[in-house]
Amino acid sequence: MISLEEYISVGSRRTRVVVTGAGNPVVFEAGAGEWSAHWSLVTAAIGNRFQCIAYDRAGLGLSEPASGSRSAAVLAEELIQVLDELKIGKPAILVAHSFGASVSRLAVNMAPERFCGIVFVDGWHESFDVWERQNISNLASNSSKLINLAERFGIFRTINRLWNLVSPPVCPWPLPAEIWASILAISNSAKFAATTSSEASAYEMGDIEVAAVTNLKVPVVNLVASRTISPEQVPPDYPVDAHNLAWCISSSKLSNLSSNSVTKILDDTDHMVQLACPQEVVKAIVQLERMIQKHRVVGHT
Known about the structure:
By secondary structure, the protein is an alpha/beta fold.
């Protein structure tokens, strides 16, 4: 299986891209605080069937940082630039985790000719912000209020294990040792902290931007985790069950953006579906490909 790591120019910055396999293009948009490494289990499993394109957003992974606004719309424009630089001619499937759902919705809206479908992987929907404001802001514990930020990052399990490099934490997923080591190192860097803070400061703007995208004219497969967080990942006073139910309801609304959509609720994983259950993402991509083919046949009859 062919795998190529290269650096391309997005604006004036070097952006790292990992291209695996050959076939119809599948582009992976990571959640907040994530990059191409977090897709490695999926791309390794499906690179014999598709051309998998995973990239590091500016300031994440091994890409150079960016200044200025990092709202979802800006990131969507940069995603399209990645495809331009790689000269991807065929419409691509988008696979988007968590916050990446907002980036992907805007990218499809900006350049519908570049994309043929989306797999949402426990994606963020702006309606969850209402639950956050009504519940998290009223909690007495300041530590609980930080869950708002951590949720968007999509790295609950990782956050709990990152900060002790003297005794490196055990990887909770079946990642190769070298990939886990690189995730730990990058997640403890000043660049990572600055970038995640910059993206987080633009979340409110991103919700406003993406709320205007109410109709995606592409097929959608929507994977939703029923247990986004667990009690051991959050402070004792955090309403875990209420959170998970609200997230499940909110994330499921992404299916309403397309008239051709399928929703699958996953009970055997947390928020990091692509690492905990990569086979579910693989199956969703294959299912979406079949939906796209059927959609094209119907559209020409």
